[in-house]
Design brief:
The chain is mainly beta. The chain has one helix at 2-16; strands at residues 23-29, 33-34, 37-38, 45-55, 58-70, 76-90, 93-105, 113-124, 127-139, 144-156, 162-173, 190-201, 204-213, 232-240. It has a twelve-stranded antiparallel beta barrel with strand order 1-4-5-6-7-8-9-10-11-12-13-14. A two-stranded antiparallel ribbon has the order 2-3.
């Protein structure tokens, strides 16, 4: 899977190279959290993501984040994400689907894996609603398959630079005998929730987030990663170009 993840990233980069970046986001946070779980061992992290137009509704989504020797991901120093995405509109709804590869840099063992994702969003005045589903078919690197359903609602407070968002998700799937399913679902199936409060100053966004999961830390086999599932308050600063 490591070679496959790098191949996906290479194909996306090669395809998108002639196009100018439509958006570029850079964010620094006090902790990297994905689906409620810590990926940077509770330490500050830096993320960067670019959306590159290819043709019509097809774009390349490329990103990277620092992991700081993450114990959850085999001591990896960073993760690179590369996706090909199709986006379309029907009435007020925006629909999208993509295939994404996650490649881990500097870690030991089989770490890379891929997902298929679909989602939709709907805007109504200052409010935005969205839902998504992500399926990672059975792969050795994640000890089985992983299925995620999520929903998010955000609203900009009229007349102010403040935005408030709330999100919730459910992770489930299958597990083999290796125990590697604990990378994405420590202790088994779980629910995650997140609350974001952002202050938007043009291209700069300052924010704070609270995350929590339903995971019972007593069910986690590896004590070194038990802190990853604690409720967490984090601060963020982001720039969009």
């Amino acid at each position: 899977m490591r070679k496959a993840g790098r191949a996906v990233a290479g194909i996306v980069l090669a395809t998108a190279a002639p196009a100018a970046a439509a958006t570029l986001d850079i964010e620094a946070s006090s902790d990297l959290r994905r689906r409620g779980i810590g990926w940077s061992d509770g330490r500050p992290a830096l993320e960067a993501y670019a959306s590159l137009p290819i043709t019509g509704p097809l774009t390349a989504e490329i990103g990277a984040a620092t992991l700081r020797g993450s114990r959850r991901h085999g001591g990896a120093d960073a993760v690179a994400d590369a996706a090909l995405r199709l986006t379309t509109r029907t009435g007020p709804w925006q629909l999208w689907a993509d295939v994404v590869g996650h490649g881990f840099i500097g870690g030991a063992g089989a770490l890379d894996y891929g997902e298929v994702r679909v989602g939709s969003s709907f805007g109504l005045g200052p409010a935005q609603l969205g839902v998504q589903a992500a399926w990672a078919p059975a792969q050795a690197a994640i000890g089985g398959s992983n299925l995620y359903f999520g929903a998010r609602a955000a609203i900009g407070i009229p007349g102010t630079p403040w935005t408030v968002a709330a999100a919730a998700g459910r992770s489930t799937g299958t597990a083999d005998a290796t125990g590697r399913s604990n990378r994405l679902r420590p202790g088994g199936d779980y629910t995650d929730v997140r609350l974001d409060v952002d202050y938007v100053l043009g291209a700069l966004t300052l924010g704070a987030s609270a995350t929590a999961t339903s995971i019972d830390r007593d069910r986690i086999a590896d004590p070194a990663t038990a802190e990853d599932v604690r409720p967490r308050l984090l601060v963020r600063a982001a720039l969009r170009f």
